Amino acid sequence: MLPVWYASVGICHWCEQKLSLDQPRCLSCALPTDTVSHSCAACQQQPILWQGTITAADYLPPLSKLLHQFKFSSHTALAAMLSRLILLNYLRYRRHYQWQKPDTVVAVPLHPKRYQQRGFNQSDLLARPLARWLACQYWPNAIRCTKLTATQHTLDRASRQSNLGQVYDATTNLCGKHVAIVDDVVTTGATAREIVKLLQLQQVASVQVWCLCRTL
């Protein structure tokens, strides 16, 4: 078990090496590639709806274990450390690929019943420090989850795609804003896709998706 004080310090050199933070990735979907690509073969066949995806690392140990402690064992003190991993990649992408700085950060919401069961929204805890560090607006309730569905991690790929229809609702007008959506894990992109559709109806200027882990 990770001691609570460790969360405010960071990760050790061994874990940092295991994370492969400099792994080349597709800038669209964040899946690993041999060299950095603005659009991998999969994204060329089926382009994403948003401008690009940032992830800290793949959903593998040690990050997957840290995320599990954070999300399912209520080790919320890990939030700042985990958010910092997302921040480091955003800063690298902004420096090397001229990524747009967001005006507004929003978190993928939990349904109120699931929030009550867990006691917190892990995406909200990741998004708050990112907005503060980057001096962005943060709207904790900009997107609302209106339908209780099966949790995404329990479903196969096909079921994930159909699980989220008409689940989310936009409560804040973000017209003209550059928006970053923060989630803990991106797998198929189904959650991001549903939220991006809502934001595009509001005619936002651009959308990026930031996550802690990208599943393979």
TrEMBL record:
InterPro entries, A to Z: ComF/GntX_DNA_util-trans, PRTase-like, PRTase_dom
Q: Which Pfam families match?
A: Pribosyltran (PF00156)
Q: Where is the Phosphoribosyltransferase domain?
A: 162-214
UniProt cross-references to SUPFAM superfamilies, sorted A to Z: PRTase-like
For this chain, the family text in UniProt reads: Belongs to the ComF/GntX family.
Q: What is this protein called?
A: Phosphoribosyltransferase domain-containing protein
What organism does this protein naturally occur in? Rosenbergiella gaditana
- Recall the taxonomic lineage recorded for the source organism: Bacteria, Pseudomonadati, Pseudomonadota, Gammaproteobacteria, Enterobacterales
